[in-house]
Amino acid sequence: MNSIQQQFLTESLKSAKPSQNTPAKAISTQRIAEKLGIGDQEVKEVTDGLIAQGYIASIDRKTTHFFITSKAKETL
């Protein structure tokens, strides 16, 4: 995992923290990209890499939302 992937995953985990009464929520790639200051192409490369490594579940390309896997939660 490279540094931008790690930053993306870290920000995603911060965004995905479920409250006591709600399940984990889908995370917007756009919101994370804005926080990190990266563009669409970089987001695609980062998320494709994280999917391949098993850290995030596949992305709904229509809504650009995704879920983090348990592997990611254990890693960070």
Any key phrases for this structure?
single chain; 76 residues; mainly alpha; Arc Repressor Mutant, subunit A; two-stranded antiparallel ribbon; 55% helix
Structural account:
The protein has one domain: Winged helix-like DNA-binding domain superfamily/Winged helix DNA-binding domain (Arc Repressor Mutant, subunit A), CATH 1.10.10. Helices cover 55% and strands 5% of the residues. The protein is built from 4 helices and 2 strands. It has a two-stranded antiparallel sheet. α1 crosses α2 and α1 packs across α3. The longest helix is centred in the N-terminal third of the chain and has 14 residues.
In terms of topology, how is this protein built?
Layout: H1 3-16, E1 27-28, H2 29-36, H3 40-53, E2 65-66, H4 70-75
Antiparallel strand pairs: 1-2
Radius of gyration: 11 Å
Please tell me the CATH architecture by its name: Orthogonal Bundle
Tally of discrete structural domains: 1
Q: Superfamily at the CATH H level?
A: Winged helix-like DNA-binding domain superfamily/Winged helix DNA-binding domain
Main sheet properties: 2 strands, antiparallel
Count of discrete alpha- or pi-helical segments spanning 4 or more residues: 4
Q: And the CATH topology?
A: Arc Repressor Mutant, subunit A
**Can you count the beta strands?**
2
The arrangement of helices and strands along the chain is HEHHEH
Distance between the termini: 12 Å
Question: Which structural category fits the helices and strands?
Answer: mainly alpha
Mean pLDDT: 86
The geometry reads as globular
Strand numbers in spatial order across the main sheet: 1-2
Share of helical residues: 55-70%
Indicate the proportion of strand residues. 5-15%
Uncertain residue ranges: none
Quickly name the level 1 CATH class: Mainly Alpha
